[in-house]
Amino acid sequence: MVLSDEDITKFQILCKSEFGIEISKEDAYEKGSKLLKLVSTVYKPMTEEEYEQLQKINQTKTMGMDVYGIKPLNEGGEYFRHNVWAWRPLWTLITYTCENILSEEDIKMGHYNSGHIISNEKALKIADTLDKTLLEKDKYPFEDEDAEWHEWFWENSVKSFIKFCRNSGGFRIF
What we know:
single chain; 174 residues; alpha+beta; 2 domains; four-stranded antiparallel β-sheet; 7 helices; elongated
């Protein structure tokens, strides 16, 4: 990419104002060209879909787990999110009831925002197991006695995650 004299002068002014150094036109041309090459190499415009996904994430103010479908069948399999306080009991229930489905690594990495992948086969088995678990939910007592939270957990959290698993095509946990 060729820099104009005006671009070189602007780059010299920028170096002086931001870094307090004066550079020659030759150095400004060389460094400016390298900077442009770097930016053109790493910069990738965001698609509208990526932008909308980012906006969904940014709308939530709490830290949490963002779970993305790998090959979603529909909107219900695209994205699932819980704050850290709701994700932990859900993932703990999953690891307890699905220990024969998940590997030790799956169980461990489900607690981290690392992008760990759960295959479609495992996601479908998790959904089936959670469906059965809903029928026997009284077998899984919680330490506290907050009945309202328990009802929300089973009716919203677990059921929503079942729907997500069935439609996600596998998922990544961030």
